[in-house]
Amino acid sequence: MEVISALKASPALFCGTALILGLLVGSFLNVVIYRLPKMMEREWRAQCAELRGESVPEAPKFNIVSPRSKCPCCGHHIAALQNIPLVSWIILGGRCSSCKTRIPFRYPFVETLTGALTACIAWRFGFGATAFGACLFVWSLIALTFIDLDTQLLPDNITLPLLWVGLAFNLFATFTDLESAVVGAMAGYLILWAVYWLFRLATGKEGMGFGDFKLLSAIGAWLGWKLLPSVILLSAGAGALVGISLVVLGRHGRDKPIPFGPYLALGGLMALLWGERLLRIYFPGS
Asked: How much is the pTM?
């Protein structure tokens, strides 16, 4: 109780604690980002083998917690002291302690990003259930962003629980009232579903994946329907700017798809942090 009282009384202590917690969560998210797509692929392969009537060989255990993390080049198991978020990467000089292979910058970047955003949420919302819910929301967006960048997948394992947890928080009007959250969840899905089919009927091509529908639905469940226009405009604007820049610079082919999930996540993050200001623009009397 004394710890909770201290966190409530000192915003600086709460933000510092949130920063450390965010770094630890960022380390865990790196595992999720790397392993969850591989777990899904294994499951799909097993299902396909069963449909073909083939026996499925027993595979080594592979999930979020097992086996232990190891260097993909030399197989060296990463000790606990070598797995301290950000600190270990700096001490090791960004290289494996055994084979000296360079550790991708992605890992410390995700940890730093998660820590910084968690501290920002602590500063923005203060100690309480709102900050806790906002952290869950942002941590999920971070995982989805990097999984989508790597694989162009937005796993149901994250998007669907994210939607239901958002509705659960808004049972108590944590971010918006329950009616707005339910309408937001429905509208978020149906808006992109309609865009998908209109684009497909007009061009014969698929402009986005079903995971994008579910992600915007989850964002609507957390933030309510009134912020959906802002989320869509921010996402579309950021996506168009980045996409045009990549094409002009020759770093991305015109026919190569660009994942939309990261831009939806960015729009959701901005709406979470500055939603009240955005609402005053669109709904002056709200």
From this structure: 0.94
